[in-house]
Amino acid sequence: MSALSKDANDSGLAAKDPAKRRRALLIVAAIFLLAALAWFLLWRFVFSTRESTDNAYVGGNQVALSSQVPGTVVAILTDDTQHVVAGQVLVKLDATDADVRLRQTSSALAQSVRQVRQQNDSVNEADATVASREVDLRKAAADLKRHLPLVAAQAESPETVQHMRDSLAQAQAAVDAAKARAQSARATVEGTDIANNPAVMQARANFRAAWIAAQRNTIVAPVSGYVAQRSVQLGASISPGQQLMTIVPLHDLWIDANFKENQLRHIRIGQPVKIAADLYGGGVEYHGKVIGLGAGTGSVFSLLPAQNATGNWIKVVQRVPVRIALDNGELDQHPLRIGLSTDVTVDISNEQGPALASVSTQAPAQTSVYDQVAAQADAQAEKIIRANLGE
């Protein structure tokens, strides 16, 4: 028998050996069990503790800059991609008409102050007239009193006494008329000083409005950020509310991650999030946290909402936006732009947080760049009033 035939006989004997066959099956079964255990452990401690999506984009505020007054553009001091700070002058309008209106209201305010001063002087003059007429009244009464005994003694004619009575009545009427004129003059200035007189306050309000309108011909940035979508051009005639450009702050950004509806079961507010931006190719990892879940799916708020009550309905898995706050320190090191794509992984191991926000934790968005305009208008009005008080 040849060597090749001997090896074939030995293999056939081994294949027919039940012990070796069971050993081989046990090894294969053990391998499958270990693989299943490894997959279970991987799912239990890794995949089941996170939800991921690549349908996530960077969001941010887009502050539309517009004019509050009509005018013609005479200067543009910035352009797209440039950084501006809050209060920086960006656009100037022709201020000719506003300056004329400001001069008119300034002179009207000064004139109103002088008129109220004149009214105060008229009150003093009317009070002096009342005092003079009261002196005449007392003199007429004294003359009549002296002559009445002479009539009884027939030393004075009745006609003379009657003339004195008429003079007394005329003096009383003159006193009453003087008091009425004094009261009429006092009604325009009584109870207030010159600065708080209604006429002065009205003229002051008109001046304040003209001052503010003149200042609004200089359009400033309400917030700090980067200029985008500049549409304003030199010489353009613009109207109030017309958008001139957009300012995008790149500091307080967020992520809108659109998770499928079956992924929202374990997502809660406050859960930590890891974000990778396509801009940096996965080499930079951002850390954020869930700050809120959308109130509806994207299809509900779309321009043309889906009509699911139709006969040809096809079920489509919906997505709900989940807002994720970013760390400003990480944004300073690795800036992002709004609209960029990201990959988001939410750690759902802790489900103690709420699914819906109970109170607002967002800091209020506000700007103070316009507060100084009103204060400056008041200061200028006070200056005009003091200059015309004659003190």
Automatic annotation (TrEMBL):
Domain (Multidrug export protein EmrA/FarA alpha-helical hairpin) ranges: 96-216
Cellular component annotations (GO), alphabetically ordered: plasma membrane
Pfam families in the cross-refs: HH_EMRA
UniProt keyword Nucleus, yes or no: no
Location in or out of the cell: Cell inner membrane
Keywords noted in UniProt: Cell inner membrane, Cell membrane, Coiled coil, Membrane, Transmembrane, Transmembrane helix, Transport
Residues forming coiled coils: 161-188
InterPro entries: EmrA/FarA_HH, MFP
Superkingdom to which the source organism belongs: Bacteria
TM segment ranges: 24-46
Family indicated by similarity: Belongs to the membrane fusion protein (MFP) (TC 8.A.1) family.
UniProt-listed PANTHER family: MEMBRANE FUSION SUBUNIT OF EMRAB-TOLC MULTIDRUG EFFLUX PUMP, MULTIDRUG EXPORT PROTEIN EMRA-RELATED
Name the UniProt record assigns to this protein: HlyD family efflux transporter periplasmic adaptor subunit
The species this protein was found in: Dyella choica
Lineage: Bacteria, Pseudomonadati, Pseudomonadota, Gammaproteobacteria, Lysobacterales
